[in-house]
Amino acid sequence: MPVDVLVGCHWGDEGKGRYVDLLSERANIVTRFQGGPNAGHTLVVDGEQTILHMVPSGVLRPNVTNVLGNGVVFSPSQFAEEVSMLAKKGIYLTPNNMKVSDRAHIILQSWIDEDLKGSHEKIGTTGKGIGPTYLHKFRRDGIRVGDLFGRFENKPDGISKAREELSGLLKLLEPFVCDTVSYLNRSLDAGLYVVGEGAQGAGLDVDHGTYPNCTSSSPTAGGFCTGTGIGPKRIRDVYGVVKAYTTRVGEGTFPTELSDEVATFLATRGGEVGATTGRDRRCGWLDLDLTRKAYMINSVTKGCLTKLDVLSGLNEIKVFVHGNYVSFPGWSEDITGVREFGDLPENAQEYVRNIEGVLGVPFAYVSVGAERSAIISR
Ligand code: IMP
Description:
Helix content is 29%, strand content 21%. By secondary structure, the chain is α/β, with parallel strands linked by helices. It starts with a strand and ends with a strand.
């Protein structure tokens, strides 16, 4: 079976978690491939909210094995916290349904401190130690999960200190540690269906994003390959997640940012508060130039539009394309109960069709509410 990869097309917070949850209904495996606890994926099932930072969003499906791939930066303490949070909900992570790559790099406390001292203010990082951990990885003096358990020949400097720092977590961690590269490829050979879960978004990509105001990984389809060890030819579809407007947390350029009552409207109706940091997200009109670039560098084959319902009640809706604004008439109806595209107000349909026209790829799904079921499938 093939692999489908799901990626964010803005600066993160597009609502990816709910689409991973949707795809995982049929998936055997959901794997993250980059980033770490800087992500915040919010899932709502039967009115109950689950926020995940480290564990993949497939965890709410009992049929799914969740994998943290080699490209992830791994926080043992955040992982342990989620293991116990999920257990309280009756979801038990075991070595059968959860695997952590032996090659994933570990976030140590001193690297969190480094992040908080430096880039946290300058770039507005999440302060989770992401940048310093990737820095050590590429400087080739990082600590991998497998190093903690003597799985590799070479003993890195600082391994004793790392083991000491994480001594309380080693017992919990060890059963989950796995050669995920072999596991994933073997699973594909055996006909299983794998979904790749991107964190952050194309605008935060360290190569293609708004450098230096970006994250330290590649949250793109290309990053999926390096971050899992699955070759590009295995990928069938790339799902690009696009919010019906644009938001950003942290510093950096934001051409369509608003500071008027529309910004307040979007922030309030959209609940635009960072799931990881609690910071208010900056809000603005849909930036299709940013989105087009994301489609290009990811080879997006299927669009997923999110939060269309948030726009209900605006008289006029704008999108930014080729450096200019184009206006559309709004709609006033509550659309959260709509499940057929043709039942949306005519103006909402027009808005969606126009965006698709610019992007050149149809939306496979349009979400109209936070609840798992609030999705129009086309
Ligand atoms: P870092 O990933 O913590 O190093 O933060 C770098 C930049 O990416 C900051 O502007 C963060 O606000 C942003 N960022 C990181 N992860 C996410 C995310 O999951 N959603 C939205 N923004 C994020």
